[in-house]
Write a structure and sequence with these properties.
The protein is an alpha/beta fold. The protein has helices spanning about 10-25, 45-50, 110-120, 145-160, 170-180, 190-200, 215-225, 255-260, 270-275, 280-290, 315-335, and strands spanning about 1-5, 25-30, 35-40, 60-65, 85, 90, 95-100, 125, 160-165, 180-185, 205-210, 235, 265-270, 295-300. The relative contact order is 0.13. Bound molecules: phosphoenolpyruvate (PEP) and manganese (II) ion.
């Protein structure tokens, strides 16, 4: 249920409603927009139906929520959410943010090299995995804490916010200590225990779409994080499993406008994992920007042929640099910037 307050509702009136909702055993989540305040209520709606909240001073209307998700819905928040990911970089505004870096952090030097080059080309944040969700247990699993230290150091040196994956609830505290943004990988999109735990932090979260997840399931997963109190969620479309096997996954471009209609959360696109082949990353990145995404996350390695993971889909610093100008032009056409 969503309680929409009148523009002139006072703090005292808001507090009164929050207290009443809490007393009924329900959880109120207050969202202050530019024009008005909205209170999302979590819990069995029938309890509230017995209490006519419409009569409370300050309330404009009370709406039952039709969609299965509440806090992520456009009904809950009309304006686009803008998420600050560190060092003043914001995702969800007019500017399209490019995050780039290697699939995995392999050593300090190559991370620094990748970071320096992507920054010079216009990337605003650095990615790099320290805990890698590999299909085979015998392949490189990531450097763990050592990798996180490199990531923090390189981010600090170059003034770039950092993004890295957390796979296990036991590592959240550790990863949050070193990185600016927690990535939940596609394979963990429905790891509800992990989602609940990152929901208790205040760190921005990039929630990747599951390999075979519908948009609805993906938004329900985001709902877990918001319901825990962490509203800083950025969705990431990274391709889904289909019958098509000429690409690693199939980039679902339609997910961008579908998410934009259904939710206020920003959405970025990962063309690298979507296609699995470096030669397709540019066209897919351009299509994603044309489709209205708020950012891109792209794998770049100084020497892809030596990469310990995802070399086939990694761009060289040179091909990454070439990808940017056409993206800028497409963004301009849409009244946005890169
Ligand atoms: C990654 O970003 O390196 C990664 C493993 O992504 P995904 O979870 O989308 O497969
Ligand atoms: Mn990867």
């Amino acid at each position: 249920m969503i309680i929409v307050l009148r523009p002139e509702a006072t703090e005292k009136q808001i507090e009164h409603i929050v207290q009443r909702v809490t007393k009924l055993g329900l959880k109120p989540l207050v969202s202050k927009g530019t024009e008005r305040t909205i209170i999302g209520v979590i819990g069995p709606e029938d309890i509230l139906r017995a209490t006519p909240l419409e009569v409370f001073p300050g309330v404009e209307k009370v709406m039952p929520v039709l969609s299965p998700y509440k806090l992520v819905s456009r009904e809950f928040r009309k304006e686009n959410s803008v998420i600050e990911i560190g060092r003043g970089i914001k995702i969800g505004s007019q500017e399209i943010i490019i995050i780039a870096g290697p699939c995995a952090i392999e050593n300090y030097e190559s991370l620094y090299e990748a970071a320096k080059s992507v920054k010079a080309s216009g990337a605003k944040a650095l990615r790099g995995g320290a805990f890698k969700p590999r299909t085979s247990p015998y392949t490189f699993q990531g450097l763990g804490e050592e990798g996180l230290k490199y990531l923090k150091d390189v981010g600090d040196k170059l003034g770039l916010p950092t993004v890295t994956e957390v796979m296990d609830t036991r590592d959240i505290e550790l990863v949050a200590r070193y990185a600016d943004v927690l990535q939940i990988g596609a394979r963990n999109m429905q790891n509800f225990v992990l989602l609940k735990e990152v929901g208790l932090t205040k760190k921005p979260v990039i929630l990747k779409r599951g390999l075979s997840a519908t948009v609805k399931e993906w938004l329900m997963s985001a709902e877990y994080i918001l319901a825990g109190g962490n509203m800083n969620v950025i969705l990431c479309e990274r391709g889904i499993r289909t019958f098509e096997d000429s690409t690693r996954n199939t980039l679902d471009i339609s997910a961008i406008p579908v998410v934009k209609q259904a939710s206020h959360l920003p959405i970025i696109v990962d063309p690298s994992h979507a296609c699995g082949r470096w030669g397709l990353v540019g066209p897919l990145a351009r299509a994603a920007v044309a489709g209205g995404c708020d950012g891109l996350i792209i794998e770049v390695h100084p020497r892809p042929e030596e990469a310990l993971s995802d070399g086939a889909q990694s761009l060289t610093p040179e091909s990454f640099a070439e990808l940017i100008p056409p993206i800028k032009q497409i963004a301009n056409v849409l009244g946005r910037k890169v």
